[in-house]
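U., I forgot to send this yesterday:
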Amino acid sequence: MSTVSNIVVCLHRPNYTLAMERLQAFKFELQPNGEQVRNMRRFAGTCRFVYNKALALQKDNHETGNKFIGYVPMAADLPKWKRETGFDWIKDPPSQALQHALKDLEKAFKGFFEKRTDFPRFKKKGSGDSFRYPEPKQIKLDQANNRIFLPKLGWLKYRKSRDVLGEVRNATVSQSGGKWFVSIQTRRDVEIVPVATSAIGIDVGIARFAAMNDGSYIEPKNSFKTQMQRLAKYQRRMSKKVKFSANWKKAKAKVTQIHVDIGNVRKDFLHKHTHTLSKNHALVCVEDLQIKNMSKSSKGTAEKHGKKVAQKSGLNRAILDQGWGEFRRQLEYKTAWNGGVLLAVPAQYTSQTCPCCGHVSKDNRKTQAQFLCVDCNYENNADVVGAINILERGQRLLACGETAALGRSVKQEPIEATKLKTA
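Result:
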């Protein structure tokens, strides 16, 4: 059944069951012993080395005018690297973890070739350290005793916050803020009986994080802004220490922890609100914002300096502090999990179009918050007007049998094809 048909059923037929194959990740904090911590650091460092070595080869290959080296021939060189003098330590991690590092590089190049991402960059120590076990047969999960078995690490205890549901597909070990985590991806079939039948339009902003077409809104959290002065204080302390000294490492750990706290507060804020919105609405319409373009620097070049650089820098910081991209990503898979659909519509002129008479003019928006139509004198909050127009555009696309920007996020587990059953 098509996506449009799914939306129509969601809105008009609440008595049905949606059968879905769900891929979901369960993340837990690990409680390793000293030897396991050392091994995880070594494994993550080796995967980083293999990634960087392969990237260097790809760059040299590109500069000489040769074609891109695919994963298969690159993986065939792994045994050769292990036999090189002085590189015996490459044999220590699981071979599949090293192979997956090469797959990550190929994925990064694919995004670059499709003009979705920038050119892949070399990985740095302590930034995104991780490695993956892609083979489920090698992973053993003992939920009764809160432990997991991973090859070459043995049994590791973890802080159990919920049960792991479904068949284990893979496991990813990562480090953040001095702590180690395991993310267990599972697959299971679920049957959902949607109860929501309403549709909502959402306009995201800075003064109001999200304004809805019914006039309600969500206040922004601004997790970075609230910690900015504290972060700057510890960054100044870090800058006064001798680089790589013991005191510098302590100061760096403090700065890192503040960044982790900022991210955790933002994620918690987004998860709570996306859960509520996806649970209560079958159709969620948002703007298809190009956040990367919106938050570009206006510094300019040495020949042509930019204008209002400081103001634009503050605006960029405020935009990125909101987490609009993560907000949309979470809404997308959560609405699908609840039997609904997220629809992204073109963002042009949503806050300058009168929802009453349809007149479009920049003069309609008197201020950042006030909307007053110069043609019919319709007055409302500008963000609410934007949300009304977003919902109207979504319904128009739906009525015409069209869908826009419905591609799933690459950061979230995919939702497989669905089928409907009448209850």
